[in-house]
Write a structure and sequence with these properties.
CATH superfamily: Trypsin-like serine proteases
Strand content: 25-35%
CATH topology: Thrombin, subunit H
Keywords: Disulfide bond, Hydrolase, Protease, Serine protease, Signal
Order of helices and strands: HHEEEEEEEEEHEEEEH
Shape: globular
Distance between the termini: 18 Å
Largest sheet: 7 strands, antiparallel
Organism: Saccharopolyspora rosea
CATH architecture: Beta Barrel
Family: Belongs to the peptidase S1 family.
Protein name: S1 family peptidase
InterPro entries: Peptidase_S1, Peptidase_S1_PA, Peptidase_S1_PA_chymotrypsin, Peptidase_S1A, Trypsin_dom, TRYPSIN_HIS, TRYPSIN_SER
Bound molecules: arginine
Strand order of the largest sheet: 1-9-8-11-12-13-10
Amino acid sequence: MGRGGVRRIGTARGGALLRLFVTGAVTALAGLHPVAADAQEQPQPRILGGARTSVGDAPWVVALTDADGQQFCGGALVSPTKVITAAHCTVDERTGEDRDVANLRAVGGRADLNTEQGVVSEIAGVWRHPGYRDYSDGDDVAVLTLRTPMPQQPVPLVGADDQAAYQPGTRGRVYGWGRTSESGPASHTLNAVDVPIADNAECERAYSNFNGRAMYCAGVPEGGRDACAGDSGGPFIADGRLIGVVSFGTGCGRPHTPGVYTRLATYAAEVEGQL
Ligand code: ARG
């Protein structure tokens, strides 16, 4: 049980070249040991340019880990048993194979991954968007079904085709345990940073593969605030709703290089069909 509906993806997927440019994604998914002491030494200490946050601020944030507790992605609770994450978080980047569901856990209510707080759930099922091939092509969304319902408050999902949520300049907040600098360590504490949504023309300038139906991007022109490797799958919240999922980026926080997010309004009807 649990793997129903999950396609196998061959190793010869497209986008391999692009993936080489997406700093850190491979290493992040290969697993990083969070190093507590280093966080203070980074010039831009959190997520990238953000700050530590708490379960109280973001009860619906979950960490995706392997069975040993090694965090590799984030996600958001949209009901007690459903987590929205990135499709690419369901694939082992080293092999191109599906991650083994038996080796996946969702951790809710635990901002500091070095503690035992909150709830750990096994995964009963994975729905990955049927169009997903590679994050560079879009459709980077998945829904995990939890075996153990989480008591934490879920976050509302953006409405289907509520494209007004992506008005350029809209400030969103992105959450995760990813790297705190482009080549730095992941974080064992949950971090968040505010970034404005950029207009599609800016995204297209930074990414030749940018697809405005499937994606949006966010960041400040000067850089310095962004998600980074290990934040994939994590929530982008605007006006109290989940409107995006951390998908990819070239490096982290570089000038004129916004982070790219899955445009959930485009997928909301399909995702709701899974809830
Ligand atoms: N693909 C990355 C991951 O696996 C997410 C990278 C996001 N990068 C960015 N600059 N916004 O965690």
